[in-house]
Amino acid sequence: MQNKTIVQLLKSEPTHHKVMVRGWVRSFRSNRFIALNDGSTINTLQCVVDFENFEDEVLKKVTVGAAIEVVGLLVESQGQGQNVEIQVSNLTVLGEANPEDVKRTILSPKRHSLETLREQAHLRIRTNTFGAVMRTRSKLAFAVHEYFQKNGFNYMHSPIITGSDAEGAGEMFRVTNLDAKNPPLDKNGNVDYKEDFFEKETNLTVSGQLEAETYAMALGKVYTFGPTFRAENSNTSRHLAEFWMIEPEVAFYDLAANMDLAEDFIKYVITYALENCADDLEFLENRLLEEEKTKPQADRSDMKLREKLRFILENNFKRVSYTEAIDILKSSKPNQKKKFKYLIKEWGADLQSEHERFLVEKHFKCPVILFDYPADIKSFYMRLNDDGKTVRAMDVLFPGIGEIVGGSQREERYDILLEKMKTMNIDEKELYWYLDLRKFGTAVHSGFGLGFERLVQFTTGMGNIRDVIPYPRTPGNAEF
Amino acid sequence: MQNKTIVQLLKSEPTHHKVMVRGWVRSFRSNRFIALNDGSTINTLQCVVDFENFEDEVLKKVTVGAAIEVVGLLVESQGQGQNVEIQVSNLTVLGEANPEDVKRTILSPKRHSLETLREQAHLRIRTNTFGAVMRTRSKLAFAVHEYFQKNGFNYMHSPIITGSDAEGAGEMFRVTNLDAKNPPLDKNGNVDYKEDFFEKETNLTVSGQLEAETYAMALGKVYTFGPTFRAENSNTSRHLAEFWMIEPEVAFYDLAANMDLAEDFIKYVITYALENCADDLEFLENRLLEEEKTKPQADRSDMKLREKLRFILENNFKRVSYTEAIDILKSSKPNQKKKFKYLIKEWGADLQSEHERFLVEKHFKCPVILFDYPADIKSFYMRLNDDGKTVRAMDVLFPGIGEIVGGSQREERYDILLEKMKTMNIDEKELYWYLDLRKFGTAVHSGFGLGFERLVQFTTGMGNIRDVIPYPRTPGNAEF
Fold first, then answer.
1. What angle do CA B473, B477, B480 make, to 5 degrees?
2. Extended beta strands in B197-263, E state
3. B226 → closest Cβ in A131, A180, A227
4. Which of A28, A113, B173, B411 could form a disulfide with B417 if both were Cys (CB 3.0 to 4.6 A apart)?
5. Cβ contact (<8 Å) for A480 and B214?
6. Are strands B2-3 and B18-29 parallel, antiparallel or unpaired?
7. C-alpha distances in angstroms, B288 versus B39, B140, B361, B462?
8. What are the CA-CA distances from residue A370 to residues A261, A356, A406 (Å)?
9. What is d(CA A28, CA A79) in angstroms, rounded to the nearest whole number?
10. Residue B182 in 3-state DSSP?
11. With contact defined as beta carbons under 8 Å apart, do A406 and A245 qualify?
């Protein structure tokens, strides 16, 4: 007897053979039709029971959320929308789900808001929406690995606990083992981190880039894919305190090669999702359409979810210098009419989400890569251009979501990097190893970072980043 | 003109076409033969320069560690051990490596101990040994993903920062944002975690299992692959404070299916390494042979590295109950002759590494899966057997390395789990969500954890776990 998953059975022909399936009851209509789901697909398998052949005691336990095992013949389905169904000959209830208890949870068969679902994050994965999102997330993660491995990159695990807080990419979480109330103090009355587990102050990483550079300068092509952390008190639909980041880093790549890589990579993973998550994306597309119906016309997207994904594949990412972008923005209607919250007055301004979205959604109407940003608003490690005022930075901007990738060519020249670190108060002693890369066989190299949850958001159409990671961590929230 | 990596060029025919390669100088013999490496393979490409055609000023800079770009024809190699070499027509030094500076680092071409290499972890990746280890690590990681994805598992990112410290798997690191010296206190004089970032005390995860269970009970088959942390002060060659763990979890799997999964999975990833890391494993095998020459005969392994890997593939993992193992150990020679450090006196004893290795290496001479351990020495979530004294736990034991996998069937019965939690002082309120899984459609399910670094150690033959992760974190050490 075959023990197959529902995704396999739904694809197979009606063999009239006996099969066994286990899963959870999604619905039980007319004491006859069980819609069974086992998580392998968003679709349910119809299991038809002839109630006269089963004890009432058993059938009573076939309720929403219960785990059951059915055995029966796989036959042509009489119903619509599926090829096959099971004529149940044996039915075992493995685990009940008391309807009174179910009623108090999001498992109850009615519409629950995403906010309510978030509060029961351990159960929300049993809903269609979260099943679809998390299966897609898994496939996207695999596509990331497959892309890089196929292209000769080495996966590198950069450290999570870090003794260097030099990068200044954002506020950090402290990792410690000291007594929380009465930490040991040194003779100056400061906390004595020499007594801590690592004998120094340590934090959670905000980026694996600097360590990835050390590996790129030996292995050539590397990428990281791991959790990163920001202790920023921003309670928005775009920020998490804990999120997963992908950071490729490549020796001998200049900024143009870096842009090519970013574009090629993003197109690969989106193609992979379209090809491997068809059912889930169809469901999510319809979900989004429903959701948008509740919004004013102006806020609705003019493309359906999969159209938006294909749009990315079919367009070249438009490459625009920061200087050019500023000119466009300065003379743009929303700037002239003071519709922007932050008006663009002069070169050097930091671009806000509203500006990025204007460029992508209104002006160019395609994905945009902005590059050559003013040095003053970017990080110390970015390659200074010959003009002395811009750096080889790039941001990939997407419709609806804004920045999805940020990267740069790295400053490979020892003297210039050292000077920059001094100017920007980066501790050169602490980052001696980063400087060493410029001392021993330095070379042009580049890389970028992509926040994985932003990619999942874009691909699934979920509006809130808390709904694309299993257990979101945000200010005041570390449940489960 | 082709811009290929060295691994590609070494596989190609001598085309007599012009190619361009960039990499780092490993050696420069007789002012004529440059051994060039770009990290894509352990092998170097021979680049032949006719010194009469090049400025002395340029050739002087072609020193160990320098980054160079060469252009030339790809021709038959005159030397041994490779098909092709490059007849260099253009040579550009991209980044020098001052020999005086190099001399002070592990880049200097002489033998350095693994301990010394560890102190310069940002440079050790440029050595043959670490290049081989880290390329193999990357391939193994991909094999992990490929195996699970091919078999219908969903990759799940379990949270890293966790508000629950209930599992009791080991000492944890605290994650905090509070002032280290003067934390806010509540009215009872205790640290007021309500003021902390997450408004509660949070720690770094020791395992993603409990959260993975919530996903398995909806998606069916899931796996995690992420960093986990133990704040244990164990300075051994087998322990890290930060390490990567793989944790599959499957609904409807009993312990037997769990054992099948573990065995099939391990064989898959080792096969993948043998097929995809041939050059690196050959190098590591020879490295190990050299290393073992320095050891007394008795401590040397009787199998070469790849023999040991194939041995795993060719043997069925022997399944032995704990009770059976105790009988074997009790009457074993080392127990009778008091050679074990911990003598086995009676049923219930916790097995030590020496016992595990005796069973694997001396008694059964093959990988062993021990199962049905005494409940008292195992975790609260393990499925109690009908005998009331053992649980459905399993450990996979490997030669040389001991435990590589630990897993169990999980207790799926609400009442029994609750009672166990009470007995073992596990806070049921904090783990209400874990109990919920047994309330709504509970079912038999199982999973295991595999420490990724142990797998990399086994596959690469590296004796110290600090040498199989880029930047090891251990007591007193969080450099880089």
1. 80
2. 202-204, 221-229, 242-251
3. A227
4. B411
5. yes
6. parallel
7. 21, 19, 19, 8
8. 15, 9, 10
9. 15
10. coil
11. no
> What residues are paired with B45 via a beta bridge?
B36
| Residue A69 vs residues A22, A44, B467: alpha-carbon distances, Å | 4, 14, 47
Say how far apart CA B356 and CA B402 lie, in whole Å: 6
Give the side-chain half-sphere CA count within 13 A for B358: 21
From CA A65, how far away is CA A74, in angstroms rounded?
23
CA distance B306 to B377: 35
The alpha-carbon gap from B475 to the nearest alpha carbon of chain A, in Å, equals 5
Q: What are phi and psi of B155, to 5 degrees?
A: -75, 130
| H-only helix segments in A171-243 | 209-219
How is residue B18 written in tokens?
A: 């012009």
**From CA B233, how far away is CA B236, in angstroms rounded?**
9
Q: Which residues of B touch A233 (CB under 8 A)?
A: 197
HEC-encoded secondary structure of A259-327? HHHHHHHHHHHHHHHHHHCHHHHHHHHHHHHHHHHCCCHHHCCCCCHHHHHHHHHHCCCEEEEHHHHHH
Structure tokens at A210: 């600097």
From first to last of its 480 residues, chain A has per-residue pLDDT tens of 667 899 999 999 999 999 999 999 999 999 999 999 999 999 999 999 998 999 999 999 999 999 999 999 999 998 777 899 999 999 999 999 999 999 999 999 889 999 999 999 999 999 999 999 999 999 999 999 999 999 999 999 999 999 876 655 568 999 999 999 999 999 999 999 999 999 999 999 999 999 999 999 999 999 999 999 999 998 899 999 999 999 999 999 999 999 999 999 999 999 999 999 999 999 999 999 999 999 898 888 889 999 999 999 999 999 999 999 999 999 999 999 999 999 999 999 999 999 999 999 999 999 999 999 999 999 999 999 999 999 999 999 998 888 999 999 999 999 999 999 999 999 999 999 999 999 999 999 999 999 999 999 999 999 999 999 999 999 999 999
A122–B199 CB contact, under 8 Å: no
DSSP conformation letters of B73-131: EEEE-SSSS-SEEEEEEEEEEEE-B-HHHHHTSTTSSS---HHHHHHTHHHHTTSHHHH
Phi and psi torsions of A440, nearest 5°: -120, 95
For residues B270 and B312, is the Cβ–Cβ distance under 8 A? yes
Residue type, A289: L
Phi, psi dihedrals of residue B216, rounded to the nearest 5°: -60, -35
Residues in chain A: 480
How many Cβ atoms are within 10 Å of A202's Cβ, its own excluded? Answer: 26
- The C-alpha atoms of residue B37 and residue B15 are separated, in whole angstroms, by 20
Q: Are the Cβ atoms of A442 and B218 closer than 8 angstroms?
A: no
Neighbours of B201 (CB within 10 A): 17
Angle at which helix B278-293 crosses helix B255-276, to 10 degrees, equals: 90
Q: What is the ipTM of this complex?
A: 0.97
Min Cα separation B476/chain A (Å): 4
Nearest CA in chain A to B232: A197
pTM of the model: 0.97
d(CA A379, CA A361): 27
Strand partners, B474: B477
How far is Cα A239 from Cα A235, in angstroms, rounded to an integer?
A: 7
Of A38, A122, A126, the CB nearest to B433: A122
Query: Exposed, middle or buried by CB within 10 Å (0-12, 13-18, 19+), for B331?
Result: exposed
- Distance in angstroms (rounded) separating the CA atoms of residues B61 and B386: 74
End-to-end CA distance of chain A: 39
The token pair that represents B244 in the structure block: 């990567």
Q: Are B476 and A149 an interchain contact pair (Cβ–Cβ within 8 Å)?
A: no
The one-letter amino acid code at B396 reads V
Residue the block writes with tokens 């063999």: A15
